[in-house]
């Protein structure tokens, strides 16, 4: 029994270090032993990665859900910047800022409502005129078909065929179903208009308070930069809208005089339509604005539509090369190619809203960067003016032609 007692402690003593070792040794082929433990930083890294993924997904979902609200806020900021000069002008003369903002909004509402009312009455009158004259148009069309194709059609047969056709029945069903969609879109548009109006009213009325709240979280050096950017944005946005408004007034008066001279009905409304649409819808606004007066003039006399088209084209050239550079030289001075590219980019990003705010946004960015980009005097190099560079001893084009002309007779004599 004694040898057994002597060997047991030795065996136990040899086995103890293996049991208390914190990390198992790797095997000969480099793989971890079965008793290896996970590093302490790995669970935390996994939890942090999952938390970041969840936060990204939640933020992406919230952004997509709030896209409409963010676009409305962007439009409201644009409108607030546009009416800021008028509100500040009235506030500087002793009027409360909230009352000044209300008066500006009231004036805009009255102007828009009056324009919509006049345009609606014009369209309603044209629709009534077309409905009343539809039998006459139909008779003339049937007469032309009978004379051209030697048929015997009657208006009564055509009307009965239309009333009993499957196409008319399907069209009526689709129209009845579309009424609900149109009503929903109208209600949604009214709600969106109310949202934009409320946000823009608060932004314009509480402009100084918003600036103070924004500057309170920034150091003094940054506060000056933010206020400078805000001032540039107000100047460029307001200048853009006011210059466009002045050009819309001039364009409306010019087209009104033409339409009134031709005897086209609804000349005042059409003049306002051409002025507003051509100036506030970028790129294609001129063509959309001229289409409606041409259509109304065509109903009076087809040659009147041609005269309206010629006048629209000529006035557009006068506006592009004479009127617009003088009115927008101080407010929005950007290259036409840059303006066109900004409109395309804004349309691709935000649709019609992006097309409307693209030009003042680019003008604001250009003016803000121009204050910090250092500029140098350009050297008097011919390449700056678009001419090719020649060495100091290289002859000009006329000199080289003259030398070739002088060499030709000698070359002919030598060859002979």
From TrEMBL:
Spans annotated as Disordered: 1-32
Keyword Cell membrane applies: yes
Record localization: Cell membrane
Topological category with respect to the lipid bilayer: Multi-pass membrane protein
Biased composition (Low complexity): 12-25
A Pfam family recorded for this sequence: AI-2E_transport
Location (main, coarse): membrane
InterPro entries (alphabetical): AI-2E-like
Record keyword Hydrolase present: no
Residues annotated as transmembrane: 45-63, 69-87, 99-128, 184-204, 246-264, 270-288, 295-318, 338-365
Domain of life assignment: Bacteria
Alphabetic keyword roster: Cell membrane, Membrane, Transmembrane, Transmembrane helix, Transport
Protein family membership: Belongs to the autoinducer-2 exporter (AI-2E) (TC 2.A.86) family.
Protein name per Swiss-Prot or TrEMBL: PurR-regulated permease PerM
Species of origin: Streptomyces griseochromogenes
